[in-house]
Write a structure and sequence with these properties.
The complex is a heterodimer of chains A (323) and B (444). Chain A contains 14 helices and 2 strands. In chain A, α2 packs antiparallel against α9, α10 runs parallel beside α13 and α13 packs antiparallel against α14. The longest helix of chain A has 23 residues. The two termini of chain A are 40 Å apart. Chain A is globular, with a radius of gyration of 21 Å. Chain A is an all-alpha fold and 323 residues long. Among the domains of chain B are: 164 residues, 3-Layer(aba) Sandwich (Rossmann fold), CATH 3.40.50.11540; 65 residues, no CATH class. In chain B, the strands form 4 sheets. In chain B, strands 1-14-13-17-15-16 form a 6-stranded mixed β-sheet. Chain B has a 4-stranded antiparallel β-sheet with strand order 2-8-7-4. The chains are: A mainly alpha (323), B alpha/beta (444). At the A-B interface, β1, β2 and α1 of A face β15, β16, α12 and α13 of B.
Chain lengths: 323, 444
């Protein structure tokens, strides 16, 4: 850039829209407020402490890594580390210990993001990398669930103290749909309440930050595939709505698969990702060793995203007539 | 036929209201004009004058030597001071003919109206009239217009579209031309229709210019072009969206036809013309007047009184600035053209050219710094050509020019929608231009 007589010389365009990375990231953070508030009501004030701890650890890890790499540490203000911190805590069990949150945060940011080169370079969703690490390091703690406080008095009593998916799969006790919709069930800190996740998630969808094609393809695939099994034998398999409301499907659809860096960018690529993640989730849920499979489904699809992005291109205007 | 919606596109802040209500003013004859001989796409014209020569208004001073080239004429009477090399906007050097203007002789000159028999007009006449008059696309592309109207023998043109989209923010020179000179523009269209016997003649205007649509409808009624006579003229209101005025985009929207990648519009039988270009044809046909002046929008937050000014080609920018009350010290950028595709000027030391649609004085802060790409896909979503701008930018950055070429680099017409929409502020168009230039220079 050079100036002469004070006028800036830059290449066109000279106008720019309002979109910015901090805007996107902070929109995601703000949209999480309903789900965060309800998670604190369900599981107690110590949950707020875990959020603060998770966010602080993520931000600090990014800053330290940047300083060590002699890069600009002020990238922490772009809001992406805060997103990772919040999302990580929301997908951990309520009885998680502070030290595990710190460890998970460090792994999320350092292994999940900075090792690849920072924002935009990572292959896997950082929060899920942290979650996967903790699952392997603390298998018992990561499958220990606590019942939430009774927040909505009009809801029926809990069917089981297990999570809805584990209860249905291993104890033969299905949870009430209404309880699952409000999130009044055992489960991850911030991922159980479909209603409160949707409030923020739909705002993001309206803003175009969450892609509606991703939601339709992911949720649609889950409905169709679980529906097939349910029709074959409703005594063994839960119905599609149950699968939508139970576990982490809603949270993953709105908040994990909306991570732009680790999901495809063309419309067709997005649909491939959504369908793939849906199928893998259902296969693990119905036939795998875990009651829930959405985390592995997304991590697996993250790993093929670079290939999708490489080979799935848009149709170029007038290309079919190119000679 | 109803117009469809364009693929992709964006909604920049239009800021048209600054100048769109300002009637066209005619600039006083300047004391001196500096006329570049490369005001068009293609090779520069060859100088036909030398220091000391006397010229009259309309005299040829630069001659077209190749097919993709255009004549250049003197807008004034005067004496050639020099023919010297100077930079055009963007930095390319070209010969400029400097003329010391004889203001009295210039102002005394009258372009005599002459009769034109529409029945005697054929395609050759249109092409030679355009070529002699040095008419080029005045929307900014400056492609020689006679070439546009000279389809190869195996092609035929069946549709004429007057491009009244004027989708670039701030600009309103075409808008004012349509409001104030709808009749003359229609005469320009009738001339070409007489030669080509189009099956469709369309005036396509974005709906944010309702007065231009009204003006055309009134002029069509007045000239009796609604149904009677030759081809009826349709006026179509387009939904506002950038870059609707891009030729291929407009053809798709108006006719549903897709110009093949890498091809020209005559492949699908369509010719698109900017309003001022048709006005130039009208003047060339009825007055024997070559393209020696044009309307320029002078606008932006940094100019005291935004205006639309008809000025002779070669008029110094500083003269126009003075007419508009001067530049605000808060001005950070001066743009030749529109803010989405225009060229930044380092100083006011430039002149009016055939393709100069606007001079914008912007007070905005500098373009923000680039962040890493987060692969959000915004650029992919807004690209009207269905390209993958983020890949093109990444390949250009990495020096992988062959890959960029294989990823349809050449199909980008640099509308700027991708960079406008990019949340990471990546100057995608700059990277694309860099790759294109690299490939051109290295002959890859």
């Amino acid at each position: 850039m050079s100036t002469n007589e004070g006028f800036v010389l830059q290449s066109a365009p000279h106008a720019h829209g309002r979109a910015s990375i901090p805007f996107i990231m902070h929109a995601v953070n703000l949209s999480l407020i309903p789900a965060i508030v309800i998670s604190i009501l369900y599981f107690g004030w110590h949950i707020l402490g875990l959020y603060v701890l998770g966010v602080a650890s993520c931000v600090l890890t990014e800053a330290v890594t940047k300083v060590v790499r002699k890069k600009d540490w002020r990238t922490v203000f772009d809001g992406s580390a805060i997103v990772t911190g919040l999302l990580l805590v929301m997908i951990l069990p309520p009885s998680i210990t502070p030290i595990m949150v710190i460890l998970g945060s460090v792994v999320s940011i350092f292994i999940g993001k900075e090792v690849f080169g920072g924002l935009g370079q990572n292959v896997f969703n950082p929060a899920l990398v942290g979650r996967a690490f903790l699952s392997a390091a603390y298998p018992v703690a990561l499958t220990t669930w606590t019942e939430p406080n009774r927040v909505f008095a009009f809801l029926p009593d809990a069917a089981s103290s297990a999570t809805p998916l584990a209860g249905a799969r291993f104890e033969g006790q299905a949870e009430s749909m209404l309880r699952m919709f409000f999130g009044q069930t055992s489960g991850s800190i911030g991922a159980t309440s479909v209603l409160f996740i949707m409030i923020g998630g739909l705002v993001l969808t309206f803003m175009g930050i969450v892609k509606w094609r991703m939601l339709v393809s992911f949720f649609g695939t889950i409905v169709v595939t679980t529906g097939i099994f349910w029709l074959i034998d409703p005594t063994i398999y839960q119905d599609p709505l149950y699968h939508l409301l139970a576990g982490g499907v809603a949270f993953a659809g709105f908040y994990m698969m909306s991570d732009m860096v680790t999901t495809p960018y063309t419309n067709r690529g997005i649909v491939i990702f959504g369908v793939g993640a849906g199928i893998i989730t259902v296969v693990i849920r119905l036939f795998g060793g875990f009651p829930e499979g959405v985390m592995f489904a997304i991590l697996l699809m993250n790993s093929v995203t670079p290939i999708i992005n490489r080979y799935v291109n848009n149709r170029v205007f007038g290309a079919e007539a190119r000679t | 036929m109803l117009a469809s919606r364009i693929r992709g596109g964006v909604h920049p802040a239009y800021r048209k209201e600054l100048a769109s209500g300002q009637p066209i003013e005619t600039a006083p004859t300047p004391e001196r004009v500096d006329i570049p001989l490369a005001q068009h796409l293609g090779v520069p014209a060859a100088a036909k004058v030398a220091r000391g020569d006397e010229v009259a208004p309309g005299d040829l001073i630069g001659e077209a030597t190749k097919l993709i080239c255009a004549n250049v004429h003197s807008p004034v009477a005067g004496k050639i001071r020099a023919v010297v090399q100077k930079p055009l906007p963007g930095g390319r050097l070209c010969d400029f003919v400097e003329i010391q203007v004889d203001r009295d002789a210039t102002d005394a000159h009258v372009w005599e109206r002459r009769a034109v028999d529409l029945d005697q007009i054929d395609q050759k006449w249109i092409a030679s009239t355009l070529r002699d008059a040095g008419v080029v696309g005045m929307g900014g592309a400056t492609f020689p217009t006679d070439v546009k109207f000279s389809p190869p023998p195996n092609a035929s043109l069946d549709t004429l579209i007057l491009n009244g989209a004027e989708c670039e923010p701030y600009l309103s020179c075409d808008h004012r031309m349509m409001v104030e000179h709808a009749e003359e523009l229609l005469h320009g269209m009738l001339l070409t229709d007489a030669a080509f016997d189009f099956s469709r003649v369309v005036v396509a205007i974005e709906k944010n210019k309702p007065d231009a649509i009204d003006a055309f409808n009134a002029a069509i009624d007045k000239l009796g072009l609604r149904n009677a006579g030759r081809t009826p003229v349709e006026v179509i209101g387009l939904d506002v969206r950038y870059p609707q005025g891009a030729e291929k985009v407009l053809i798709k929207v108006v006719t549903g036809r897709t110009v093949p990648a890498g091809k020209l519009p005559f492949e699908v039988g369509v010719v698109v013309s900017n309003g001022q270009t048709l006005f130039a044809l009208y003047e060339a046909a009825y007055f024997g007047k070559p393209l020696v002046d044009r309307v320029v929008t002078i606008s932006g937050e940094g100019i005291a009184s935004p205006k639309n000014i008809r000025a002779p080609i070669g008029t110094p920018v500083a003269d126009l600035v003075e007419l508009c009350g001067g530049v605000d010290p808060a001005t950070t950028k001066v743009i030749a053209g529109g803010p989405m595709t225009g060229t930044a000027l380092p100083s006011l030391d430039y002149v009016v050219t055939k393709g100069l649609s606007g001079l914008l004085f912007l007070t905005q802060s500098e373009y923000p710094d680039e962040s890493p790409c987060i692969r959000c896909g915004s650029c992919v979503e807004v690209c009207p050509m269905g390209l993958m701008p983020l890949k093109l930018a990444a390949y250009a950055k990495a020096g992988k020019f062959e890959l960029a070429k294989a990823t349809n680099l050449a199909d980008c017409f640099e509308c700027g929608s991708c960079a406008w929409a990019c949340p990471a502020n990546i100057q995608i168009v700059s990277w694309i231009k860099y790759a294109k230039n690299y490939i051109r220079v290295k002959g890859l």
